[in-house]
Amino acid sequence: MSYHGLLDWRLGLALLQVFNDSSYSCGLNGDFGGPELEGWRHFAGDLRDAFCATFPCTPVDFGSLPGFRVGNLQVIVAHPLWDSSKPFGELAAAIATVGSDSLSNLRFLDTFNMQRRMSWTYQALRG
Amino acid sequence: MNEGIPGRLVNSCGLHQLKRISPSRFIGIQECALREVWRATACPPLLPRPPRAWVGTIVHEILQMVSTGRFNSKNRAEIGEAWDFKVAEKEKSMLSSWLDAPSVPLKNSAWDFEVQKIRTIDRVLATAWRDVYQSGQGGPPSSSSELWVETADCSVGGFIDSVEEIDEKLILRDFKSGLITFRGSESTDVKPEYVAQLELYCAIFFESRGRWADALEIVPITGDTVTIPVDKTKCLAILQSAKDALHRTNSVIESTSGTRDGFLELASVTPNGCARCEYRPGCLAYKCKDILDADEKWPQDVTGQVSEIASFPNGSAAITVKTKSGLRRVRGLSSVPGRHPALSYLFAGSWVGLYNLKSVRDNFDLVQGPLTTIYDEIPAEQSS
After folding, report:
1. Which end of chain A is more exposed for a tag (fewer CB within 10 A), N or C?
2. B321 in the Ramachandran plot: left (φ > 0), alpha (ψ -120 to 50) or beta?
3. What whole-number distance in Å separates Cα of residue A108 and Cα of residue B379?
């Protein structure tokens, strides 16, 4: 049965976890064991590979997170619920692998938009 | 300046001659002598220190501990504990200041707190010269951390982060917690002020101990250590410039005897310099500058007379200020007790200064930022 293209039961479940548990970190602590996160890293890696096969990007890993380079930008693939303005855990470790001089060229792409709006996200990066 | 009454600005600090100039402040005195005079004479800051600067100090102190052999066990947890201890120490100090207390805890106020922690631990674990120190390759090395050096006339002096002798080669090092090249620049050149600082240490070391260093190293938190060749002529010229700057500054203070002219002559009002200056609210030259060029990135400050104060049910307040260039509204000011002590002193007609504000897109109003500070103050024309 086909549902609306923007529905994502995993993301919905993760959001409910946020409401239910203030200490829930949505995988940032390295625990991707829950049903809402199971296989997320692999999924993010596949999305990154597909993105790089479609657009002129070079796949790169930032710590345990997938990412890529496009032009002078370095892009880390993140979970949609992660806050890149106050990174910690897995995301902080990924950013720490980027040189201090490259931080101004660092961008984040979330898997929700990458999966559903691949062209739009690429244009947003270029813009 | 009065640090006893939070939110109330009364008098500016006086002018006292400098005993010496430190290499870390040499570029600063060229940028604005007044700021350096106040810093050197322990004048209390009037604006909060950015949280990233506090984190930078922690990074610096952890890196300094490396050269003492503190982390020779290469234990990640041990370095993490030292980091946590330093953070607690700094936050305790911040809580004692009404200006810095709102930035506690640092993990919430400094966006890259966790990133800097990871980088620092990685840097400590990857520091090659620490291994040399540990294994004693090439004979027992002599190493000093925070070594005090000063010229014979005591006019220039400071602490060198690390001095190490390996295989009879003397290395002076300086640790940097931030970017050592220009932001957004393609150039890999190290900022000239960082080079000048190390060259100045090199010249002082020579003058005080009769020996030239063989290498100067800048150790950033990420990336490779940068080695600067020792140019003896350049080092001595910079040392002379530092001595000249000190004498010039002290001459102004002596000849003006702490009058208004002295403050105005020592101050240098520039967009970048003033944006990073913690004494802006008490700076006569900054306040008296009539029109700040709109094309330049000046700090977002508003000074003038209170026209209206409004409080809202959501706990925020707005102040409309009559400035030299007309009415200016500042909104989104927190009414949480302790955040802006000046709000309880202000009334229509009061003189007010609001500093470190943020602009709003498509709106002439300004809003509160994380470092916004408000003072109940006296007009610049009446201050000394």
Report:
1. N
2. beta
3. 47
Pairing of strands B169-176, B157-166: antiparallel
Cα(B224)–Cα(B334) distance, integer angstroms: 43
Q: Show residues of chain A in contact with B221, CB under 8 Å.
A: 100
CATH of B132-230, one of 3.30.565.10, 3.30.1050.10, 3.90.320.10, 3.30.470.30: 3.90.320.10
Let me know if domain B300-382 sits in CATH 1.10.150.120: no
Token readout for B303 is: 């000074």
CA separation, residue B131 to residues B74, B216, B221, B227 (Å): 10, 19, 17, 18
> Is residue B49 within 8 Å of residue B278, measured between CB atoms?
yes
**Domains of chain A by residue range:** 39-126
CB contact under 8 A, B112 and A87: yes
The partner residue sitting opposite B111, judged by closest CB among A86, A100, A101, is A86
Residues of A with CB under 8 A from a CB of B: 85-89, 92-93, 95-96, 99-101, 103-104
pLDDT in tens, B336-382: 888 999 999 899 999 999 999 999 877 789 999 999 999 998 765 55
The predicted-structure confidence for A13-36, as pLDDT tens digits, reads as follows: 999 999 999 999 999 999 999 999
Q: Which residues contact B60 (CB under 8 A, 6 or more apart)?
A: B161, B175, B176, B177
